[in-house]
Amino acid sequence: MPYRDYDQAGLDAQYNNRAMVPDHAAYIDSWATRSAEARRHLSVDLDLVYGDDPRQRLDFFPAPQRDAPVLAFIHGGYWQALDKQHFSHVAPLFVAAGIAVAVLGYRLAPAQRMTAIASDIRAALAFLYRELPSLGGDRARIHLAGHSAGGHLAALAAQNDWPALFPDLPGDLPAGLVRGVCSISGLYDLEPIRRSYLNEVLALDAPEVAALSPMAHLPARASGPFLLAVGGAESAEYHRQQADYAARLRAARHPVQAMILEGRHHFSAVDALAEPDSPLFEGVLRQILAPRF
Q: 124 in helix, strand or coil?
């Protein structure tokens, strides 16, 4: 099933990140090691329950002060792998800057279709919104970040009509629940995913692609800023996805910054979020701490 100028093998190669980075396992091991260290040294509420499944949990790292802004992070893994425990290491720099961090878990394919996975992210964020006063965060300042599949899920959450989805949410949500989004190596057009080898596990159909592609469903109202980042060494399709989505956002008058992380591949791109001198960390910090008028 060809796509654009690719035959099947070419399309599959564009989205096979593990094949493109032979030492990818070393990055995943490093994430797990650094995350365990972060959980040992930071204050954290582990495995807060937002659903019945063991994966419907989130970890919350409070900031030193109450009423702090919050960064909710959504991990990648092509909707079928990894876990929130691999990404606690994104928390230390933000907590030190006075920003609380929530790392979201969610159910995975093939046990769940992508529609259910997207629903998990909405449920996790609604739970977080309700609980933030007791956890010490400011529910009016929730920002999202995600990597790869997590970037897709973050962009998807930003477009939701939260008052309609959760009419019981307390407070006023005139601008939606999400105040800003950072998507790293994000996937915004699911059609090439449906046509690739990945669909052997995901089982995406055409209606799901239409309903769950952020490219086709921009936020209906003015939203907070978007920061999009892709590794310079990532495939042409990842660069195409980011460029097309950024263009759609700009055309709809949504504020967006797009950056290329030079010299980084799919697995090292997300590491920039936990490096104090990286433009990605600095950009997310500015997005969260910038005054709102």
A: helix
Is-contact 117 79, C-beta < 8 A? yes
CB 93 within 8 A of CB 274: yes
* Per-residue pLDDT at 293 exceeds 60: no
Residue-wise pLDDT tens digits, 96-121: 999 999 999 999 999 999 999 999 99
Judge residue 120's burial from the number of C-beta atoms within 10 Å of its C-beta, 0-12 exposed, 13-18 middle, 19 or more buried: buried
- pLDDT at residue 1 above 90? no
Core vs surface per residue 195-230: b (16+ CB within 10 A) or e:
bbebbeebebeeebbeebbbbebbbeeebbbbbbbb
- Rounded CA-CA distance 21/25 in Å is 9
Region class of 269: left (phi > 0), else alpha (psi between -120 and 50), else beta = alpha
DSSP 17: H
Contact 186, 165 (CB under 8 A): no
Distances (CA, A) of 70 to 50, 62, 173: 17, 9, 16
Distance CA 204, CA 61 (A): 34
- pLDDT tens for residues 174-218? 557 999 999 999 999 999 999 999 999 999 999 999 999 999 998
State the amino acid at position 235 in one-letter form: S
Cα–Cα distance measured from residue 207 to residue 270, given in angstroms and rounded to the nearest whole number? 30
Q: Which two tokens stand for residue 83?
A: 């876990």
